[in-house]
UniProtKB/TrEMBL annotation:
Enzyme class: ligase
InterPro entries: FTHF_cligase, FTHF_cligase-like_sf, NagB/RpiA_transferase-like
GO MF: 5-formyltetrahydrofolate cyclo-ligase activity; ATP binding; metal ion binding
Name of the protein: 5-formyltetrahydrofolate cyclo-ligase
Organism classification: Bacteria, Bacillati, Actinomycetota, Actinomycetes, Micrococcales
Gene3D superfamilies: NagB/RpiA/CoA transferase-like (3.40.50.10420)
Organism, scientific name: Amnibacterium setariae
Length: 203
């Protein structure tokens, strides 16, 4: 990270974390309903039979209802498992999901580890984000797992970040290793970006 962008990213992440903490219970419940509906519609639109999705933490937009719906609908769901080498392992969602805390204190599923290349078989990747701008550039939380994963894929399926509505912003600080997304899902809408990497499969 350059000296110029490091403070910008830290400040923006801190502001966004504080906003999330200040959401009311009713606001969170409404957001969960909206995000689930948007993700279900997206899966149906692209006819995804396998997806990767993270287990949301307490202050994150809730992806758990969507993951449960997908599993119950017979869609294969992969959850990420953090590794010390900066890569992600994956495990398959089950009916009796067990959870633990990962390397950074965030929830992760417990299951058979499938290795980093398991992500190559999904039809849709759902990722967390702090913010995304109008060009599709994603600001993550600073650990680089998804940037490394997406940057290494030769044929990446559509990638959508899940955000609260206020986190789709005009611009985020960008570095060379940062990876853009194909769209965002918020409680009220799904936004697709017109500029996509040529290595990605289009919807």
């Amino acid at each position: 990270m350059t000296d110029d962008l490091a403070p910008q990213k830290r400040a923006l992440r801190a502001e966004l974390r504080e906003r999330r903490r200040n959401l009311t219970r009713d606001e969170r419940a409404a957001a969960t309903t909206g995000i689930t509906e948007q993700l279900v519609a997206l899966v149906r639109k692209i006819d995804a039979r396998s997806v990767s999705c993270y287990l949301s933490a307490q202050d994150e937009p809730n992806t758990r209802e969507f993951a449960n719906w997908a599993r119950d609908a017979g869609i294969r769901v992969l959850f990420p498992i953090t590794r010390t080498d900066g890569l992600l392992d994956w495990t398959t969602a089950t009916d009796d999901e067990e959870e633990t805390l990962g390397l950074f204190g965030t929830p992760e599923a417990v299951g058979e580890l499938l290795g980093p290349i398991a992500i190559n078989d999904v039809d849709l990747i759902v990722v967390p984000a702090a913010a995304v701008d109008g060009s599709g550039m994603r600001l993550g939380w600073g650990r680089g797992y998804y940037d490394k994963t997406l940057g290494s894929m030769e044929r990446c399926p559509p990638v959508y970040a899940v955000l609260f509505d206020s986190e789709l912003v005009d611009e985020v600080p960008r570095e060379r290793h940062d990876q853009a997304v194909d769209g965002v899902v918020t409680p009220t809408r799904t936004v697709e970006f017109s500029t996509r990497s040529p290595r990605r499969r289009r919807i």
